[in-house]
Each structure stands twice: as structure tokens, then as C-alpha cells.
Design a protein that fits this description.
It is a single chain. This protein has about 500 residues and is an alpha/beta fold. The protein is about 45% helix and about 20% strand. It contains 18 helices and 18 strands. A hairpin with a 2-residue loop joins β5 and β6. Bound molecules: ligand C2E and magnesium ion (2 copies). The site of one magnesium ion has 4 residues, from β15.
């Protein structure tokens, strides 16, 4: 049967072969343990056969033990992250003083978000098959003998000597392009959003974990399309490191509470100038990094389970503030910003109701602001939850209105009471005719549908007076007041907030 086999006709001139299958406990054949010789042997005794089978069993026991102690990734049977880190440490130690430049290359065969989408739409079995296809492509691309590791579900890595840097970059770039080609898996065409990042190392540098983090962070490089743009870059990594630090420190800030505070920005009725409400705006004074803007840390928190806790903290503080305002005869509404993640919680309405009850605060004094783009994520869930909140008597405002890409018709389905026109349109109101048209028609449309209209970002007397003339109900912005601490807000309110007089307004300039 093997007479014409190239290993028999040519090197190594096999004349004898005996093999025992290597099977996992569940019967999956991984390969064979074989003994070959260049001299024929005609008899294999029963004890020799038994010895070969024993050896195969020992190999399997070893493989299974290695897997058990956590060095092999299931499905692909590639060495995993722990093995990679150990191998890098060994390389660094062995290379001390030799100075060979190496690269650790990290490959996302699909972006993590896409992986989640594929799992939820097509299931794990499909994704496993798809993943094995990517592994085969990567292995076929790599120089022979290069070991491929699986770092996490759809993330692989290898280490190689850089040698000619330009040639290395060409090779990695072509691997990236190849992995991004559309592929069919079980007849379903998929366009993989594959990404590659790489970090260079020699014999000195960081521990292996940091090297892996550096190469992984480079998969996010913005200049991915640029040739060789997959290298780790300290500057763009600083952004990731800062995000990482903020996310690591946020739980402690939340638990202790004193690094977080709320500022209150007044909202006034344009016609009377009386303060009718305030918006609670969260601030975080980080002990090392100073004041962090919510524009930076809220989107980070929204990617974690911290967001609902943060909202609960703001709700508690805000409702407590309403209670102390009532004692100081400040009877205004407080707006609190919430995120789509809050609306996804089935217990959110009862959390709000409980907090209101704890401080015995009228639900109508609370206004929850949710951005238009958050609503667009899952309009059915959002509108169900908002309906519940309306039923307990809380007001709902659509924040940053006009910036989302949603069709206006969705307004019909959102049980909101207030539309807040985004500041983008208000800032250039007096310069841009198109903004005037947008704002005027938004005010009319919102009024026709029964919403109150708030304009945010009023920075000038001209904008204020234009909005007043065009029927906007309420305004908020630096021209009225910046966000203030609780103490300063109370002083501002007593000085200006109770006014019901219309002071002189600028002539019609816009
Ligand atoms: P937002 O809810 O649209 O809040 C208005 C933002 O515009 C605030 O920025 C406010 O300080 C700023 N602002 C107010 N008037 C003017 C003006 O006349 N000119 C200009 N240029 N800006 C003005 P801030 O406090 O940095 O908050 C940014 C965003 O962070 C908020 O936008 C809101 O989406 C989010 N945020 C703030 N606090 C919270 C919170 O407690 N929870 C949640 N989920 N999000 C929050
Ligand atoms: Mg807001
Ligand atoms: Mg806004």
C-alpha cells in the first residue's frame, strides 16, 4: 500500500511503520503515535504492540493533562495565553544580550463586537467552524514552524523574528487583508472585521503580559489602513491606558462617594426668566488625574456594569437635593441624565419610585433625560420603560434632540414630555439660517405633538431673544448660568431664579 509513498521511495526511506491512534476520551482522533524505521521488521510482538498502545495512552494523558492545567485552548487545540506568556518570558531570558528583534503579533480574526453578534445570531457551533477556518488561513500564511497561540475566543498571536522590517510589515499587512476578505461559512457569507496589532521586543523590556497588552492595544490603532500601521504606538496607547485606569478606579470612587459630585445648571422659562428647573451634571474629581469630564467617563462606564450603579448614585444625590431645596422653598424640577442601559433594567422604575419615596419627593419634580441616540438602540424596550416611568408621574425629556439619525416619526412612540434641542443648533443660531429653520420647525413640530421645548447651550443674549421670539419654552446655557455647586446654585436662585420680570433684550439681530 505504501510502496509508492514519497517517504518510502525517497527520504527517509521508510521500510517499517507501526502506529497507535491518539484519541481523546470522547473518541476524537488527534493523530497517531508511530514508530518508523528504515529497516524492515516483520514481526511486531504482542508485548511490543501493547507497549506502543501504552505509549500512545501516555501521550494522550500528557496532552489531556496539559489541557487540564490550562495550556491548550479548546476547539482549536492551540496553545493558549498562559503558554504564550511563558514562551515569551523564556525567549526574553534566552536572548539576554543577543539583541534579536522580535515581534509579537496579535490577530483578531473578527472584532470582539462582531464575534458577539455572530454568536448571538448564528450560534456557537457556527462560530467555532468559522474560527477554525480563520486559524487554517493564518497557519497557511505563517512561515513554517511558527507557533500560533489562541489568546482569547477569536484572538490569536504569534512571535517571530523581524529580520527585514519592510518585508515583515508587508507580510503582516497581507495577512490582515487576507483575513478581511469575505468568506463563506456553511454557505453564509461573512465579511470578517479582522484586526492586527504588533509590538516589537528584544531582550530587555517589559514583562510578557505588558507586551501582550501593547500588541493588543495596537489592534485598535486608528491608522490601520496605513501600511505598517499595526505597530504599537505609545501615544495612542496612553488613551487606552487612561480609559483602563478610569474604569479601574471608578468602582472605588462610587463606593466612597466623595470624589463624585453633582453640579446643577439652571433652566429658566424664557418668557418670565423664572428658574423652573435644573439639570444635574456629574463631576468626578480623580485624586491623580484631576477633574474628569462626564463626556469622557460616562461612555466608558456605559460599556460596563458600572453605569446602573452610577445612575443610582446620581438619582439618590439628586433626589436628596430636591428634598433640601423644598426645605429652602426652592420648588423646581430636577433633570437627571440616564442611559439606555438603565432603561434595559426591568427594575429601573421601582428603583426610581423607591428613591422618591425615601425622601418623600413628588415624582413630577423629577425629569429624566435620555438622549435621542440612546433611544434609537432599542426603541421598543425604551418606550415600554418610559411608559412605566410616566405612570409613576416622572417627566421624560429627549436630550440632544436633532443629532440622532432617527426619523421624526419615532416621536409618536416615545412617551416623553420634553424635547431638548441640541446645543449644536443653538450655538450658531445667529449665524446659520439653516439652524434657524431647523430650530423653528422643531419647536413647531414638538408643540404640535404636545411636547414642551427646551433649548440647551444658550451662550448669548441674541440666541436667547431669538428663541423667545420663536416660541421656545425653556432655556439653559452659559449665558444664563454655568453648572453650579449645590451651595452656589442656591445663592444664584435666591438672586436671579425667582425673577419674573423680562429684562431688556437685545434688538432683533437674528
Ligand atoms: P447633556 O446632558 O447634553 O448636558 C449638557 C452639557 O452641555 C453639559 O456638559 C453642560 O455643562 C454643557 N453646557 C451647558 N450649557 C452650555 C453652553 O452654553 N455652552 C456649552 N458649550 N456647553 C454647555 P457636561 O456636564 O460636560 O456633560 C456632558 C454630557 O455628559 C451630558 O450632556 C450628559 O449626556 C452626560 N452626563 C453628565 N452627567 C451625567 C449623569 O449623571 N449621567 C449620565 N448618564 N450622563 C451624564
Ligand atoms: Mg442632559
Ligand atoms: Mg444635551
Amino acid at each position: 500500500r505504501f510502496a509508492k509513498n514519497p517517504l518510502v521511495t525517497g527520504e527517509p526511506h521508510i521500510r517499517f511503520y507501526a502506529g497507535a491512534p491518539l484519541r481523546t476520551r470522547d473518541g476524537f482522533a488527534l493523530g497517531r503515535l508511530c514508530i518508523i524505521d528504515d529497516k524492515p521488521r516483520h514481526v511486531v510482538s504482542a508485548s511490543e504492540q501493547a507497549a506502543l498502545r501504552d505509549l500512545a495512552a501516555m501521550v494522550m494523558a500528557h496532552i489531556e493533562m496539559r489541557q487540564m492545567v490550562g495550556y491548550l485552548a479548546p476547539v482549536t487545540w492551540l496553545s493558549n495565553r498562559f503558554r504564550l506568556l511563558e514562551d515569551i518570558e523564556t525567549l526574553i531570558n534566552e536572548n539576554a544580550g543577543v539583541g534579536v528583534e522580535r515581534a509579537l503579533v496579535v490577530i483578531d480574526s473578527v472584532a470582539p463586537e462582531q464575534y458577539q453578534d455572530l454568536v448571538s445570531t448564528l450560534g456557537h457551533a457556527f462560530v467555532d467552524t468559522f474560527t477554525l477556518g480563520a486559524v487554517a488561513l493564518i497557519q497557511a500564511h505563517l512561515p513554517e514552524g511558527t507557533k500560533l497561540y489562541q489568546v482569547s475566543v477569536a484572538r490569536y498571536a504569534y512571535v517571530c523574528v523581524i529580520g527585514d522590517k519592510a518585508a515583515f510589515e508587508r507580510s503582516v499587512d497581507s495577512l490582515r487583508l487576507m483575513l478581511r476578505q469575505p468568506r463563506h461559512c456553511q454557505d453564509i457569507p461573512i465579511v470578517p472585521r479582522a484586526r492586527i496589532g504588533s509590538a516589537q521586543f528584544c531582550d530587555n523590556i517589559k514583562p510578557a503580559v505588558q507586551l501582550l497588552r501593547a500588541a493588543t492595544s495596537a489592534t485598535h490603532n486608528p491608522s490601520r489602513s496605513k501600511f505598517g500601521g499595526f505597530w504599537y504606538d505609545e501615544k495612542s496607547d496612553l488613551v487606552h491606558q487612561r480609559a483602563f485606569q478610569l474604569l479601574t478606579d471608578l468602582p472605588a470612587a462610587l463606593a466612597a462617594g466623595e470624589q463624585l459630585s453633582l453640579l446643577y445648571q439652571p433652566k429658566i422659562e424664557l418668557a418670565t426668566r423664572a428658574c423652573v428647573g435644573a439639570e444635574a451634571l456629574l463631576r468626578w474629581d480623580h485624586p491623580e488625574l484631576g477633574r474628569i469630564s462626564p463626556g469622557e467617563f460616562i461612555p466608558l462606564a456605559e460599556r460596563t456594569t458600572l453605569m446602573p450603579l452610577l445612575t443610582e448614585w446620581v438619582l439618590r444625590q439628586g433626589i436628596r437635593q430636591l428634598d433640601s431645596w423644598r426645605r429652602a422653598s426652592i420648588n423646581i424640577q430636577l433633570a437627571i441624565n440616564i442611559s439606555m442601559l438603565d432603561l434595559e433594567r426591568s427594575d429601573f422604575t421601582s428603583i426610581v419610585a423607591t428613591q422618591l419615596k425615601v425622601f418623600d419627593v413628588e415624582p413630577s419634580l423629577l425629569d429624566l433625560e435620555v438622549t435621542e441616540s440612546a433611544l434609537a438602540i432599542d426603541i421598543a424596550t425604551a418606550s415600554r420603560r418610559l411608559q412605566e416611568l410616566r405612570q409613576i408621574g416622572v417627566d421624560i425629556a429627549i436630550d440632544d434632540f436633532g443629532t440622532g439619525q432617527s426619523a421624526l416619526s419615532y416621536l409618536k412612540y416615545i412617551p416623553a414630555t420634553v424635547v431638548k434641542i441640541d446645543q449644536l443648533f443653538i450655538h450658531s443660531l445667529c449665524e446659520e439660517r439653516s439652524d434657524q429653520c431647523m430650530v423653528r420647525s422643531t419647536i413647531d413640530l414638538a408643540h404640535d405633538l404636545g411636547f414642551r421645548v427646551v433649548a440647551e447651550g444658550i451662550e448669548s443674549a441674541e440666541a436667547f431673544s431669538w428663541l423667545l421670539r420663536n416660541g421656545c419654552d425653556v432655556g439653559q446655557g452659559f449665558w444664563i448660568s454655568e453648572p453650579l455647586s449645590a451651595h452656589d446654585f442656591q445663592e444664584w436662585f435666591n438672586r436671579e431664579g425667582r425673577s419674573t420680570e423680562i429684562s431688556a433684550l437685545p434688538a432683533e439681530r437674528c
